[in-house]
Amino acid sequence: MSDPTPALRLEGIVKTFPGVRALDGVSLSVLPGEVHALMGENGAGKSTLMKVLGGLHQPDAGTIFVNEQPVRMASPLDAKSKGIVFIHQELSLSEELTVAENIYLGELPRKGFGLVDWSTLYARTADILKKLNVGFGPKSRVGDLSIANQQMVEIARALTVDAKAVIFDEPTASLTDAEKVVLFDVIADLKSHGVGIIYISHRMEEIFKITDRITVLRDGSYRGTLVTAETTEDEITQLMIGRKLDLSRNTTHSEIGDVALEVKDLSCGRYFSDVSFEVRRGEVVGFYGLVGAGRTEIAETLFGLREPTAGAIYLDGQETRIHSPTDAIAKGISLVPEDRKGQGLVLGMNCRDNMTLPQVADLTSGPFVAEGAEIAIFDQYRDRLDIRTPSWRQTVGNLSGGNQQKIVIGKWLSMRPSVLIVDEPTRGIDVGSKSEIHNLIRELAGQGYAVIVISSEMPEVLHVSDRIVAMFSGRIMRTFTSDEVTEDNLIQAISGITPEKVA
């Protein structure tokens, strides 16, 4: 029996930008009814390849085939007309329009005199939403939906056309566990109807759960295609980054110093209550818990974004009040937020200006900013953090996720804090950059910083933390040292189970 005809095939794709060969003869084929993972470090060429496929970039060489017919993708609409549908990580919705209008934008059903056929529009949308088992309707305003539900609207768009191939780019980044189940059901349904799926994700557990084959890119080049059931995480990782990773439990111990930050009985409305902990210089304290446990809200309170309703904060043994981020920065507290693109960076600005943004007033003489001083700060932290960019002039939005995160960390380190809070330090970052960020956190502790790491990934908190604070429903359930913590007792704690109940 002959092999099935690929639903989609890219052959020898080359794309060069000034000074950078982003794609160097990359090939990829997706079979009908196959879920095909595309993996690689940030900057490996995945996004560029998908932009070529979607008509946003024209290749310098190579050919795209749909059902083995050579095609040219002139634009995203042209790609969609040929059956290539994208579910983007970055939402591309119009918040003021309804769900139905967003799903059928540019393709609204019409009746006489060109008027929109609203009844048909809402009926079609209702059928699609029923398949997704969502809790909102066709007439809901998209701007009123949660980020997770907006992601489901993006996914609904894929169900409106006769798709040959659907590309999912980090689709679960903002979904709950329940919504992930619905997404995987949708993918299974598309697969059963012979649709080819390209699935881009850094989450290994998802890759091994739902994909059939895995193609790996590194530095713009094709590194191989493996059958998922016949490979391992280690093999994929080595293809991606060219080396093995150390993802073991933290066994390094910095010299622990005095208490830099102490929190006593701190509360903030409905978000958390009676929270007490301390962080010493040279120590990494990890905060772990389910979504809604109150971890991020504690960080925001310490950084002056929220006003506490009770309790006290001590810095170097002295009680202090923090009313704003300006207060926090002045007192030596810095926060790397969980949403680096929305809260940590100005994506249209260059690397240097992002790095020096919090201290631009201090670098200003009259109406002018001291450019030399800014460049010196950027150069210092580019070298210290190994930020990979051609120059400080590079727009931050063009950097890989790992390098963007290093820019945010460098920005706050340049303020010379004594307490550094890092919220979800490796969200949306590939495994190689993740390892670098983990090593950086341990190095910062070794240099005497008091570090708080908030993470939703158990391996991450186990790998970087000296102590782990387990939270449930706005309260601290238990605090573990790295020696005594186990996966079982950590899960029990974040599920609200006390040691007494276990006994």
UniProtKB/TrEMBL annotation:
MF terms (GO), sorted A to Z: ATP binding; ATP hydrolysis activity
Keywords, alphabetical: ATP-binding, Cell membrane, Membrane, Nucleotide-binding, Repeat, Sugar transport, Translocase, Transport
Principal location class: membrane
Residue intervals of the ABC transporter domain: 8-244, 254-498
CDD domains: ABC_Carb_Monos_I (cd03216), ABC_Carb_Monos_II (cd03215)
Highest classification ranks of the organism: Bacteria, Pseudomonadati, Pseudomonadota, Alphaproteobacteria, Hyphomicrobiales
Pfam families reported in the protein's UniProt record: ABC_tran
Topological type in the membrane: Peripheral membrane protein
Cell compartment(s), UniProt: Cell membrane
Gene Ontology cellular-component annotations: plasma membrane
Organism for this UniProt entry: Amorphus orientalis
Alphabetized InterPro entries for the sequence: AAA+_ATPase, ABC_carbohydrate_import_ATPase, ABC_transporter-like_ATP-bd, ABC_transporter-like_CS, P-loop_NTPase
PROSITE patterns: ABC_TRANSPORTER_1, ABC_TRANSPORTER_2
Keyword Iron among record annotations: no
Name of the protein described by the UniProt record: Ribose transport system ATP-binding protein
SMART domains according to UniProt: AAA
Family: Belongs to the ABC transporter superfamily.
